[in-house]
Amino acid sequence: MSTQRTIALEVKLDGRRAQSETIGARVGPRALVIATTLPDPGLAFELTSTFTGHRGVPTHVAHLTLGPPGHHPVMRTDDHEHKNLNPNDRVRECVYEHVGVVLEHLKALGYDTVIDVPDDAFEQLERDER
């Protein structure tokens, strides 16, 4: 069973607040999906990150980037030590990993980017930690 939760991030591009939405969803006890969308027609950017892991094996992370228009989709994968990054009981670290990749992409597009991650942004997802 999946549980979708809003993650309250504030994204600023070139000093102005950008319309954005970030959600997280648990897909069973060993997988977490986090997606950030910036729907502005001039940007139309989306990053979806999946975190899959279990004790005894590395946590596998995939980041799929779509947009802006005219750019090819990008898929990046990586493995992390499970004790440092896992979808079961290290949700905060997964969100920070996701936010870091959003920052990388937006800065590479030439935006002066700031993402504010309030401490309570993780509240709902952390309550769901198993």
Describe the structure.
This protein has one domain. About 20% of the residues lie in helices and about 40% in strands. It has 2 helices and 9 strands. It has helices spanning about 90-110, 125; strands at about 1-5, 10-15, 15-20, 20-25, 30-40, 45-50, 60-65, 75-80, 115. A 6-stranded antiparallel beta sheet has the order 1-4-5-6-7-8, covered by helices on one side. The longest helix has 18 residues, at about 90-110. The two termini are about 15 Å apart. The mean pLDDT is about 90.
Integer average pLDDT: 90
Strand order of the largest sheet: 1-4-5-6-7-8
Largest sheet: 6 strands, antiparallel
As for the number of domains, it is: 1
Class by alpha and beta content: alpha+beta
* Unreliable parts: none
Bulk shape: globular
Distance between the termini: 13 Å
Provide a brief overview of the structure.
With 130 residues, the protein is of the alpha+beta class. 18% of the residues lie in helices and 42% in strands. It contains two helices and nine strands, in the order E-E-E-E-E-E-E-E-H-E-H.
